[in-house]
Amino acid sequence: MEYYLPTKVILGRVEDEIKKEVDLLSPIKILLITGGQAMRKAGFIDKLLKLLEGYEISLFEGVEPNPSPALAERAKKETDLIIGLGGGSVLDVAKVVATELKKPCIAIPTTAGTGSEVTPFAALYDMEKKKKLSLMVDFPTVAIVDYRFSLTMPKDLVASSGIDVLCHAIEAHWSIYSGFLSDMHAKKAIELVVENLENSWKGNERAKEAMSLAALEAGMAFSQTKTTACHSVSYPFSIRYGISHGAACGLTLPYFLEYNYQVSRDDCSDKRGHEFVKRRIKEIVGFLGVKDVEVGKRYLIGLMESIGLPTKIEFDTEMVLKEAFTPERVGNNPRLVTENNLRRILIEIKK
Question: Is 163 exposed, middle or buried (0-12, 13-18, 19+ CB in 10 A)?
């Protein structure tokens, strides 16, 4: 078993931490990469610039969801340090730029969802070709998780990102690459989501703080295991139909819980065997606080409905089938996913 997480993780107030972490890296020039107007309106950009007075800072604003390779290229500037301030898309662009320039990166998440602050993965999108590009990048050098940034998240983003956390954690736990240490993070993340997601969506600050921790825990888990079939199937829903990433992942999560539990010796992808996989799924059901897989499936559907996410959508089944098989993710699933089996799952979520 291996576990590699070189990122220095800090849970704390950004005003207490950012200056001393930057000073330790001794940059002359800093490139700050951030999102759209929401970051500026919330005062986050001005706050960070004030905290880093005295440094030469270049600002790249305007990273939107599903960023393109061209955008990541435009963000590149001569610098000694990259700071990413924003949601998963912003942090992904910051990691791509830092990796290509071979410079350190400080990741400051402003949402509670992606876990991008502690993973070596980045997603860019070619919207003309309707393709997602999954990139291996360097881990951020430092992650500063200050839950207060997440307090301004709109309710739809709280819902979608919260389900994304749950998908990351559950998929990490049933991944064929799961291990003892990733299991601990996955279990904690699932339990935190179960206890806090609905209250976070309703606006409870303590629950929002817990969801920031859940996102971090889930990120630590899937940084080691990668994601599985739910994520693979989600991409055409996001690219073709504009379904937010977390909501798109959550659409099939209840059905893959059931599907993976029905694993047999003949279609098991995990070298630890089909009985091991069944125990994994039972463990997940226990983390959800329910008694069996069928109840777990209903619980997940009900959770999505309770926070305003769709559980059925309209789509072209054959198109999704054609584009849903991302080999590096489907191959991580503990049960072999066939076209016919996926078609049956898609029927369940189609309006």
Answer: buried
